[in-house]
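User: For my dataset I need records formatted as: sequence, then structure tokens, nothing else. Please produce one.
Assistant:
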Amino acid sequence: MARRTKLLSLLSTLKVAFQNPHNPFSKTLRVSYGTLAPSKLPEYEMPSVTWGVIQGRKEKLVSRVIIFDYLKGLGIIPDELHDLELPSTVDVMRERVEFLMKLGLTVDHINDYPLILGCSVRKNVIPVLGYLEKVGISRSKLGEFVKSYPQVLHASVIVELVPVVKFLRGLDVEKDDIGYVLQKYPELLGFKLEGTMSTSVAYLVSIGVNPRDIGPMVTQYPYFLGMRVGTVIKPMIDYLVHLGLPKKVLARMLEKRAYILGYDLEETVKPNVECLISFGVKRECLASVIAQYPQILGLPLKAKLSSQQYFFSLKLKVDPEGFARVVEKMPQVVSLHQHVIMKPVEFLLGRMLPAQDVASMVVRCPQLMALRVELMKNSYYFFKTEMGRPLNELVEFPEYFTYSLESRIKPRYQRLKSKGIRCSLNWMLNCSDQRFEERLQGHYIETESVGPTFFMGGRLDLPRNSIVSDEEEESDDEVLYRQTVSL
């Protein structure tokens, strides 16, 4: 008890001595504290020194006026800085402004986001820029990055930036792609991990997107990480499912073309679907059209369809109904340049085929319009010189030009010739190698079907024959899935 009383008495004496400004011991204590204490702390952990600590009210107001006058002299409007903690001297503010300008920011950029002047060069700007450069954003691009997302300079590297980068790596985004992703969508650095990003990924995986494909999707189109499931992603998926696209097909589409999620459902997607219908595309064909060419949902479609329909009517003599069938079979035609279309058409017209026959060939097999004329010439001369067949067979089966001359047409023709079999082009070419061998070994000639359904980006949908094949018919979903996977 006596020891405790003595200790309290000593502490009381020290307190009185320290509070006395004339006491030399008090002065010694202050000097020692002011000299030694900061050296025990790492530089980046030191508290920021502000004019509020070292200045009185009057000096504080004077400093603010001087700094504001300096900023106004540069053309910077300081109206939003009244409640912001600013440096104690104009020299420190000048250092900040000059540093930002060296990055490439102009007075206009600073006026767009004046709060950037509240960032300390040493404690905010340099650590953040150093980390961004470390994750793959080149030094020459840092200025553009700050211009597009100046809020990043307020972020804590450890608390805010590092977790986002780790999250992206966890989604299988390649290390070398991190900088590219952040430059495309800098706002990612401001998202909370447990919020929109995690929810978007979880929903896409739930509809069938392969988790291993999330990384490539983020690299291609990182913006979907910022989309809300309930108001953006799910309504889009539900609408496309309503059109007849199975979720398995949608998942494959999104894995390859995640940017589809960025199309505005009400302003773009729905009007484009209605536009297709208004131009004669059958409702039951919409799912197939979208599966073959998903980009059609985001195009300025009405203008493109109007232009192409007029062109087909004027130059190719294809009526609007025929044009609609062309779009159903090869929707990419809406974006095909007209001079590209005319090259194969002019080649066919140059073989003395009537314009109406060429029009019927285009409607039956729109892929003709995307073929290289050099390949068409080779196939045509083989047809005329070696096979010696009449032109009307090409009109009836224009798909002949879509098959490889060296790997399919020549070998099969030679096999038929050696066996003395004469058949139509459809019978010879419109089947797999296995089916062709079965036909050669058979003692009959199959009844010919109407022909294949040829979808751009997919395979030939071969007609079946119960006599020579026990294969099961594919469901509509399986056909759409195959077309999408082959895109």
